[in-house]
């Protein structure tokens, strides 16, 4: 029975993918609250769903986004997530949010969200933000300084960043077109891959001496 459900699920997934929609599949019902224990659930997409009759307000609720994350780290930023992991009621709904705190001169380094477009709103401070277009569009940097109340969009899949260029802390909130956008931090994935990517390959790709690559790998893998 489990195997059949899995196969049907897999076939539906393959069908959905072949329709060339890179976005979260649209919800197939009003609500589909995620549950941890699969045995009483019905699998739709994303996560297993709770019986809708058992849904409660808490399934759609999260508190604490008024509190700043701790930015005392190497890059001076902190992301507080409000996605399907924290709010099970987001399951299949194709949206989520984050709060981002930046220490003075802190940064959210170049990264990409494989499943979501992001729309960012600055609440406090001054951010220099940008994204880079794909190879086909000549890797053009599209960047701007944002102040309180400003909004900026990072298109799905494109590498983007935010830097606090002010002397004070900055705060932004962002919304995503996915219940679980995913994050690929470029430096961590390239130089922090486990096991490490051959330093000669990376040296050639990044026009770096393999010794420098090894040094970077040591920093990203071992935190030295
Ligand atoms: C972000 O802030 C939270 C809450 O203060 C903290 O638990 C967490 O370790 C911080 N993360 C990083 C990467 O500094
Ligand atoms: C990219 O560069 C090529 C060669 O210079 C040019 O022909 C093309 O118009 C550029 N495309 C864009 C989107 O800027």
TrEMBL record:
Primary location group: secreted
Keyword Glycoprotein: yes
GO MF annotation, one: manganese ion binding
Disulfide cysteine pairs (residue numbers): 32-49
InterPro entries in the record: Cupin_1 (IPR006045), Germin (IPR001929), Germin_Mn-BS (IPR019780), RmlC-like_jellyroll (IPR014710), RmlC_Cupin_sf (IPR011051)
Signal peptide positions (record): 1-22
SUPFAM superfamilies, per database record: RmlC-like cupins
Keyword annotations from UniProtKB, A to Z: Apoplast, Disulfide bond, Glycoprotein, Manganese, Metal-binding, Secreted, Signal
Residues reported in the UniProt entry to bind Mn(2+): 111, 113, 118, 160
Residues the entry annotates as binding oxalate: 108, 113, 118
Superkingdom, natural source: Eukaryota
Keyword set includes Protease: no
Annotated localization: Secreted, Extracellular space, Apoplast
Cross-referenced PROSITE patterns: GERMIN (PS00725)
Cellular component terms per the entry's GO annotation: apoplast
Domain Cupin type-1 positions: 63-214
Pfam families: Cupin_1
Role noted for this protein: May play a role in plant defense. Probably has no oxalate oxidase activity even if the active site is conserved.
Family per similarity comment: Belongs to the germin family.
Protein name: Germin-like protein
Organism listed in the record: Citrus sinensis (Sweet orange)
